[in-house]
Design goal:
8-stranded parallel beta barrel, 10-stranded mixed beta sheet, alpha/beta, binds alpha-L-arabinofuranose, globular
Length: 613
Amino acid sequence: LFVNASGASAKKIPDTLFGIFFEEINHAGSGGLWAELVRNRGFESGGSFMPSIIEPWAIIGNDSSVIVSTDLSSCFDRNKVALRVEVLCDNGGANICPDGGVGVYNPGFWGMNIEQGKRYKLVFYVRSEEPINLSVALTGSNGLNKLATTTVVAANASDWTKVLVLLEAEGTDSNSRLELRSTTKGVIWFDQVSLMPLDTYNGHGFRKDLFGMLKDLKPPFIRFPGGCFVEGADLRNAFRWKETIGPWEERPGHYGDVWGYWTDDGLGHFEFLQLAEDLGALPVWVFNNGISHNNQVDTSSILPFVQDILEGLEFARGAPNSRWGSVRASMGHPEPFDLRYVAIGNEDCGKPHYPGNYLKFYSAVKEAYPDIKIISNCDGSSKALDHPADLYDFHIYSSASFVFSSASHFNGAPRSGPKAFISEYAVTGGDARDGTLLAALAEAGFLIGVEKNSDVIEMASYAPLFVNNNDRRWTPDAIVFTSSQVYGTPSYWMQHLFKESNGATLLSSTLQANTSNSLIASAITWRNETDNNEYLRIKVVNFGNSTVTLNISISGLENSLQSSGAIKTILTSSNVMDENSFTDPKKVSPVKTMLTKVSKNMDVVLLPYSLTS
Ligand code: AHR
């Protein structure tokens, strides 16, 4: 491998190159990054149809002690469903209640993770004609083993009353549930029951361990809130930003019909922008352009949708006294968010109304916000786009060999005009299973090709980011979690070896003609912000099953190359199909060793199926 560090051939890599893509898929947000512990907090999973779907809420008691139903009596106009609990038993009467009383419990998202010493904020709305005497508890999954209890008493709650309780856990159980019980005959209505840990990132509602996994990747951008999630199978189930802002109690929630689950939309448009800010990442907002999987808005009727998006941009960027900027300010963020990128739809190129709708959104957004970069869904890597755009979206999901060989895909892309945003890449299928070393190496090879073509590629992100292991809707994913555990797949760890590339200098590097075509390599120099020193990083993927001794020859760094102290990082494993797991979370993860001697001409041993850096 010849590395030439002399100035002329070096190129600056975009600061934005390797970021992340968050989609509400696999309970990434609802039951994941968003720390809300109650699932279906408004009892309306499935909408305001009667009878409403209350699962996973379940009844404590039997037919002779309690009747649980729903009606439309909520005090919240946009989510009218309330839970009606008719307590038939009474500890003061003949029909004695079962031990502890009757009522309902919520097991959260496959168990609530309650941790000893931590505090949890419980909020719910309640109404009853009779005085209320409720016992509230966090318990183990079978209702035994109480971790926190309290009593809520209200002499008069004949109008809807908000109750706020702080619960401190006296024990730990990752499979806990929340119980609301009574032993007094009468009817009680409940609505909007929320249980949030106080200990979230910056108090912003993000589960700390999952947030940390993202922060560690140092992403320069975050694309959100999804791909298909934004489109919806049906337009009425698409993500609508306005339905996800303001007080959480008033948000209607919606059914994400592509990934098949309800979300209360606690993680809404504001929280996504806040997440980007907390990560130090630029937000990239993908919005619905009037097109879903099964239906489309005709371009002649698209203007209200365009107006809605302009208002969403004003919400993000408008002055705090503007109409929508003031709503943002009222949510605690008077400063505008740094929104500089939007994508008009997801995977909609080729659909009949895309060209017309696209142009309407494009011209309205450009006129109102000329600096915002607009991403088209149409692939401009093979031929120039026939419409204006700042970036074009490119998705690649395929076998390991195809993804690896696609490292050269952008060699032939147009060198002028819109740049590429590879907003979704991953090896899928049998090569990847739930996340193999093989997949990660193929993706690493692809990303080396992305680095080399970063004059025409501005951004790239793996997909999907998260999966709650209890409800896989798509595999593989970068980060796997349950209520209390988390690990990164090899593809997650592979991305760590690319995070220094953002804003780095790409050096010219050439593999000798006789080197096996299962090798791919790149070289960068980058400045470490901590010590302000400049470092050289060479990455090589050996995608073959034999050990290779690679001779590396470096020119142009003669005066600055230090002969010792360099670090060699290897991502490999004994079997190329190895995966990580909760029991062995770092089986396939980068291992660092010291390089004893560095010189301008050296041999480096590359293990079979490895990424060496
Ligand atoms: O990443 C999963 C899905 O793949 C995305 O929602 C969609 O854009 C693509 O088809």
